[in-house]
Amino acid sequence: MTLDASKSADAKPIVLIVDDSPDVHRLLKARLRVEDLDVHSAEDGAAGVALAKSLHPSLILLDLDMPVMDGYEVLRTLKDDQSTMNIPVIILSGLQNAQDKVTAFDLGAVDYVTKPFDIAELKVRVRSALRMQQLIQMLSQRAQIDGLSGLWNRRYFDTRWTEEVSRSSRHARALSVAIMDLDHFKSINDTYGHPAGDAAIQGTARILQDAVRQSDVACRYGGEEFVLILTDTAPKDALVLCERIRAAVEATAWPMHPDRKVTISIGVAGSAGACDATPDAWLHAADQNLYAAKKSGRNRIVSSELPTSTTGKLRAAG
Ligand SMILES: [Mg+2]
């Protein structure tokens, strides 16, 4: 599967403590040791923000009362930054009044624990915040996965494709996209029933997952259509990969209709580097190639190279 789980399942959750008191760090590190957490410390606000960006912790325990950059400012800075805005923050504070709590929650804190804290209570609040964070991550990943095939869905593809095209054009890197469509899919559904059609989609999805590298992105584009983003892959290499996929689909024996083969047509568009085609233009080219593959008899691949950009030529010429 090519999902990029940002952290491996067996890694300990990283907890970052931001507090100007060395005693708090000592106490928390000692008491949280049994919790199977990877605990990091920052003794001022700026260091806390920097570590939050580099470590991507699962949780931050944040003191409000600190010199120079106080906890409120740290919280504001974290919430303003795309890369840190979703990290849950528990405030640890000696400030007891309701207004401080309201301000902290308004700024996006998930919990507020007053000092001196009861360590047993803090532990359950830490556990609860981590559990919630895990659920949110799981749900947001699920929302991007197609339920039938287990591949990334169209919504994920749209975002990711735009990113990959701009990355490729910025760094003059090779990139290819392959749009593929099962041939005569309607007749499989009509002849053998929808479960057979679903099985063909799932079987094809497995072939795609087995064929691509970790860095590639396999998506269900809709209906019986699939799309592959092949990063750092020139069209001639994309063609080799797609031929493997085409042959594997053709060679598959389908339990619900052993006498009826399933085949796939594929349109590839790519660039060996330095291309400034828009994401849409790129997809349009692949789509045209898919259409040509269908027109010329199906169960085949049509591939083309996108024109090299002028800026790319200049760069290549040094
Ligand atoms: Mg303090």
Helices and strands in order, then pairings?
Elements: E1 14-18, H1 22-32, E2 38-42, H2 45-55, E3 59-63, H3 71-80, E4 89-93, H4 98-106, E5 111-114, H5 119-142, H6 154-171, E6 175-182, H7 185-192, H8 194-211, E7 217-222, E8 225-231, H9 235-251, E9 264-271, H10 279-295, E10 301-305, H11 310-317
Parallel strand pairs: 1-2, 1-3, 3-4, 4-5, 9-10
Antiparallel strand pairs: 6-8, 6-9, 7-8
Helix pairs in contact: 2-3, 7-8, 8-9
Describe this entry's structure for a reader.
This protein is an alpha/beta fold and 318 residues long. The chain folds into 2 domains: 14-142, Rossmann fold, CATH 3.40.50; 154-317, Reverse transcriptase/Diguanylate cyclase domain (Alpha-Beta Plaits, 2-Layer Sandwich), CATH 3.30.70. It has helices spanning 22-32, 45-55, 71-80, 98-106, 119-142, 154-171, 185-192, 194-211, 235-251, 279-295, 310-317; strands spanning 14-18, 38-42, 59-63, 89-93, 111-114, 175-182, 217-222, 225-231, 264-271, 301-305. The strands form 2 sheets. The chain has a 5-stranded parallel sheet with strand order 2-1-3-4-5, sandwiched between helices. Strands 7-8-6-9-10 form a 5-stranded mixed sheet, with helices on both faces. The longest helix has 24 residues, at 119-142. It is elongated, with a radius of gyration of 26 Å. 34% of the residues are buried. Residues 1-8 have low confidence and may be disordered. Magnesium ion is lined by residues 19-21, 63, 65-66.
